[in-house]
Amino acid sequence: MPVRGERADGKYVAHQIDELRAKGVELVAGSLTDPAGVTRAKYVPLRRLGDFQRSGMGVSPSWSVFCVDSGIAFTPTIGVAGDLRIRIDPATVRVVDDGIAWAPGNLTDQGGEPVPLCLRSLLVRAERAAADRGLTALMGAELECTMVAPDGGPASTGPWSPYGIRTSLDRSAFLVDLATTAERAGLSVEQIHTEYGHDQLEVSLAPGTPVATADAVILTRIVLGRAAARHGLRISFAPVPFEGAAGNGAHLHLSLADKKGPLFAGGDGPHGIRPAGGSAIAGVIDSLPDLIGVYAGSALSALRLKPGNWAGAAACWGLENREAAVRFIAATPGSPHGANAELKLIDPSANPYLAAAAFLSSALRGIDHGFELPAEIPENPSQSATVPPALPTEQPAAIDALEKSALAAELLTPEVVEGVVAVRRYEITTFGDQPPAETARALRLAWSC
């Protein structure tokens, strides 16, 4: 959307241009991430930074229904006619590579108003909805990914030690480059480590406002991709890059506070959870069957979302329970950012703005309706005496549930649901009859930046 006030001032933009030119920037990218979870961009010469804000760069409405393999899933309301605009805020521009800067874009009409399928604007509204209730919302993010060779094959074939010092030091030059590039881009990286899966890596980001965190997720993906390329690697954000291999998650952490303090600490409930905090967690769990198509709805998502994968495949919550969809982190000295709820079942094929909006909005719905916190599942849900209800994890079932859900339409709007369903149904048609190994090969780099 157009930015008014100081940031729209010509002197401010001119100052930004001078600063970026001093850093060697020649081109500025403005990106959108579509309902299929793919990030796409347009570039302008640095001197046109102000134009990228004022008038924006034209895109077809079909950008909202592009698919993972470059197909287009036209809908009754999105066809070949029309023109929209990507607009950026010059204050959000960050340097991501030699000569290249980037900013998150908003999808607007020609007059500058957000269109229904501007998913970043959807998250802005969810953030405002929290503020209207007197709540402050913060989110943190964890990005799991897999290092692969330039041809998309395995990056290494030798023995892998999960979290091992050898496996990380073997990639030390890349990791140092990644940390340096992230710092230059203004990212607040809290942790980098090699993960359980072969050639798997995780980057953890400090909490921020939901919109800022979703922006940081996209920026981190870009930085990861550019740093990896300088070291002869590519980065896969596929939920499962190789059949039978460990899956990649895209966990989000949510904390909420009102004028009395955090909702997830200082109360009389389990682990200090206050009543409103319990209702927020209950709202998230209650909505999972309807919204799993948002969080993990791609053609590869079901390969990851299985019991035993620590992917949060069970619709329940538990203290530090990695098999529960909602892993609760209590306020202890070991949690420097305080108590929060982590939604584990999100994977990198999800649009981070949409996933964050669904997460936050479902928590607010739980508070609005005063939902009661379900009983905690403290052990492996598959071994619990109280077995949580099954989630529709297979793609056709997940997308059917999303399409039919009045709750999803209420929280995300009918237009957004229609767009997500369209691109995911295209995937069902295109990849549904393929062996999983072929689908993993075809989509290994679909969500890479």
UniProtKB/TrEMBL annotation:
InterPro entries: Gln_synt_N_sf, Gln_synth/guanido_kin_cat_dom, Gln_synth_cat_dom. Keywords: Ligase. This is Glutamine synthetase. GO terms for molecular function: glutamine synthetase activity. PROSITE patterns: GS_CATALYTIC (PS51987). One of its GO terms (biological process) is glutamine biosynthetic process. Belongs to the glutamine synthetase family. The keyword Coiled coil does not apply. It comes from the Bacteria. It comes from Mycolicibacterium hodleri. Coiled coil: none annotated. Pfam families: Gln-synt_C (PF00120). Residues 119-449 form the GS catalytic domain.
